[in-house]
Amino acid sequence: MAKPAQGAKYRGSIHDFPGFDPNQDAEALYTAMKGFGSDKEAILDIITSRSNRQRQEVCQSYKSLYGKDLIDNLKYELTGKFERLIVGLMRPPAYCDAKEIKDAISGIGTDEKCLIEILASRTNEQMHQLVAAYKDAYERDLEADIIGDTSGHFQKMLVVLLQGTREEDDVVSEDLVQQDVQDLYEAGELKWGTDEAQFIYILGNRSKQHLRLVFDEYLKTTGKPIEASIRGELSGDFEKLMLAVVKCIRSTPEYFAERLFKAMKGLGTRDNTLIRIMVSRSELDMLDIREIFRTKYEKSLYSMIKNDTSGEYKKTLLKLCGGDDDAAGQFFPEAAQVAYQMWELSAVARVELKGTVRPANDFNPDADAKALRKAMKGLGTDEDTIIDIITHRSNAQRQQIRQTFKSHFGRDLMADLKSEISGDLARLILGLMMPPAHYDAKQLKKAMEGAGTDEKALIEILATRTNAEIRAISEAYKEDYHKSLEDAISSDTSGHFRRILISLATGNREEGGENLDQAREDAQVAAEILEIADTPSGDKTSLETRFMTILCTRSYPHLRRVFQEFIKMTNYDVEHTIKKEMSGDVRDAFVAIVQSVKNTPLFFADKLYKSMKGAGTDEKTLTRIMVSRSEIDLLNIRREFIEKYDKSLHQAIEGDTSGDFLKALLALCGGED
Question: What's the CATH code of the domain at 658?
Answer without folding.
Answer: 1.10.220.10
